[in-house]
Amino acid sequence: MKKWKRILSVAAAAMMMMGLASCGKKAPEPPLNPSGFSIRRGVNLSHWLSQDFGWAPKYTSVREPDIRFIRDVGYDHVRIPIDEMEMWDEKGKPVAEAFRNLSDCLGWCDAAGLSAIVDLHILRSHHFNASNEGGSNTLWTDSTAQNHFVSLWMQLSDSLRSWPVNRVAYEFLNEAVAPEHEDWNKLLNKAVDAIRSREPDRVLVIGPNMWQIAPNLRHLRLPERDRNIILSFHTYSPLAFTHYKADWTSFRSYAGNVRYPGVIISESDWEKYIAPADENVKNPLSDARESWDRNRLVDVFRDGLAFAREKGLQLYCGEFGCMPTVDREQRLKFYEDQVAAFEENGVAWANWEYKGDFGIYTWDSASRKSLEPDSALIAILLGGR
Description:
Layout: H1 2-21, E1 41-44, H2 64-73, E2 77-83, H3 84-87, H4 96-112, E3 115-122, H5 143-160, E4 168-171, H6 181-196, E5 204-206, H7 209-212, E6 229-234, H8 239-242, E7 262-263, H9 267-274, H10 279-282, E8 291-292, H11 294-311, E9 314-319, H12 328-343, E10 348-351, E11 361-364, E12 369-373, H13 375-382
Helix pairs in contact: 1-13, 2-4, 5-6, 11-12, 12-13
């Protein structure tokens, strides 16, 4: 605890300095939902009840002191990804310890004054990164899988419905990747109808098809006159910078340099390393030859912002972040610009992630361990605006 208090004092000092240096521009107030579920700045509790890669012993990476630390550095909510395979066994039986940990976490959050979003992250029938991991999604073609998806949410509702609607929200599916937007609309509205039949006032966090990118929000077919909705998008743009050397991407073997702000991949590096590659490598890097700065980061979600304002709903970025594989100062500058882009436009956010390679802790890539809180990154995320 002494080490954490020292980290907190350093972060608080940095936040104060950033506040003195800020221009004083006030972010627009987001519209409020009738249930009073309020979020502004959050963090993802990843690799705990979702995508458990064994980086920490089972269930140990998030405990009550972590939630208090999250509150103390300035977050107001957490997003809790959960996976079907972590929460239910192969026979469909709930894993008691996993559900107990989820319930405990919501209790810790309530005691700390934090809101929480429960996000069904990965299904056995759907993985957002299936195309890069050699898998396939059956959710969009298998009616049994679709009914099972709705059934999972009924079970989650049974488990979670006693939590106050101003404290806990539901996010149906992380980064849907359906062949057609209407495929997602049909399944989404089926799940909405099922939840609304029993929880009419629960706030629902809804993102669009195709990896939850902001321009696709306009393709959503939302339930009419439902004000307890928060519109969600994710951004990791520019991908060449934020996912530099990420071993789950198609461009993981790229051996050139990246930079931010400015042109992410120089023309000489592009010609040397990218031009000879196949389209699978080139496509996700298509914007890396453009110049990136804070204004360009706003462009990524500008269409989504217009849609949210048109609908009178709050806009929320549920995931963004940058790996520590890039230059340290450039990484911090990216975070500074990204958070400013959100807050100057009234967009609530949750960075990916608490612990892990994108985390607010320093990361040891050799041992794959989170070490100490990164006070400079914490100050940039949570101070000054």
